[in-house]
Structures are given as C-alpha cells and as structure tokens.
Amino acid sequence: MRKIILIALPFIALLASPSTYEEGKRIYFSKGCNGCHGVSASGTNTYPALAFRRKPFLIYKLKRLRAKQGDTQLSQMMIPFAMGLNDAQIDAVTTFLSEYHEQESEKYCPDDSNTGGGSS
Ligand code: HEC
Predict the structure, then answer these.
(1) How confident is the model at residue 30 (pLDDT cuts 50, 70, 90)?
(2) Percent of the chain whose predicted confidence (pLDDT) is above 90
(3) Residue with the nearest Cα to atom 25 of ligand 1?
(4) How many angstroms separate the alpha carbon of residue 97 from the centre of ligand 1?
(5) Residue 106 contacts by C-beta under 8 Å, 6 or more apart in sequence?
(6) Phi/psi of residue 105, nearest 5 degrees
(7) How many domains are there within the chain?
(8) Residue 85 belongs to a domain
C-alpha cells in the first residue's frame, strides 16, 4: 500500500494547478495578447503597455471591454479578446501583468518594438 502511495506522489504533484501568475502568463501567450501588447507586455505602437499596471485598473478595463464598452475607436480591436476571457482568466492574466517579473527569468528578451514611432 505504502509503495503505491510513493509511486503516485509525483503524479499528484504534476496534476496540481500552476500558480495564478503562471496561469496568467499561459493565457497571455496562448490567447495572442502578445501579438498586440508585445512579448514583454510593454506595448507596441498604439497598443497600450500592460506590465506593472495596477491590477484593479486592468480588471476594470477588461470587464468593461468584455461588456463591449470601449472609450476609443481602437477599443473595437480589443473587445473580441476581452470577450474570450472568463472572470478566472481575467484574474490570472491581470495577476501576471501587474506582478510582472519575467525580467528575472533566464529567457527574458527585452522588447524594444514599442519604439516604432507610434502615436501614443
Ligand atoms: C488585435 C490587437 C489586440 C490584442 C490581440 C489584444 N489587445 Fe488588449 N488592447 C488593444 C487595444 C487597441 C487596446 C486599447 C483600447 C482602448 O483604447 O480603449 C487594448 C487595451 C487593453 C487593456 C486596457 C489597457 C488600457 O490602458 O486601456 C487591457 C488590460 C488589455 N488590452 C489586455 C489584453 C489581453 C489580456 C489580451 C489577450 C487576451 C489582449 N489585450 C489582446 C489591442 C489588443
């Protein structure tokens, strides 16, 4: 019996859910947010930077956009992406963005594409 438990333990550990931060990071890249907001979430051209912004602001914005309430013409572009997120995903992705600490990871690749001469 004990042997079975010992064998099962590593698998149970693998099944444990990743941290909210890691989940948010996965959502950010799997849902294509990086395509507009950049691989370091530092914004590109007219797309706003998201890293290090306050979590309540990011949640407020995403929920408004999800309800198709945009303040600018550009927001029409963002609405379909906000609509693809449920509350838990918004929580995870805003945790990732507000606590952003990818620069500590070995794979950090500075994103300088926001110097492309956009208008914002
Ligand atoms: C097609 C390009 C595009 C993609 C992909 C995209 N966004 Fe956006 N996003 C925008 C634009 C444009 C705005 C600015 C909207 C406005 O001006 O109101 C924006 C605004 C935001 C804001 C509000 C920030 C602010 O300063 O107003 C958040 C938060 C956000 N996006 C998160 C995300 C997340 C999370 C994803 C992935 C699920 C994502 N975006 C995917 C284009 C995009």
Answers:
(1) very high
(2) 66
(3) 48
(4) 12
(5) none
(6) -85, 155
(7) 1
(8) yes
Q: Has residue 1 been placed in a domain?
A: no
What DSSP string runs through 54-100? -HHHHHHHHHHHHTT--SSTTHHHHHHHHHT--HHHHHHHHHHHHT-
Residue nearest to atom 3 of ligand 1 (CA): 36
Which ligand 1 atom is at minimum distance from the Cα of 85? Answer: 38
Q: Which residues line ligand 1 (CB under 6 A)?
A: 31-33, 35-37, 47-48, 50, 58, 61-62, 70-72, 74-75, 77-78, 81, 85, 93
Residue 71: the pLDDT is 86
Shortest-distance Cα residue to atom 9 of ligand 1: 78
Classified as helix, coil or strand, 41 is: coil
The CATH number of the domain holding residue 73 is 1.10.760.10
Whether 29 maps to a domain, the answer reads yes
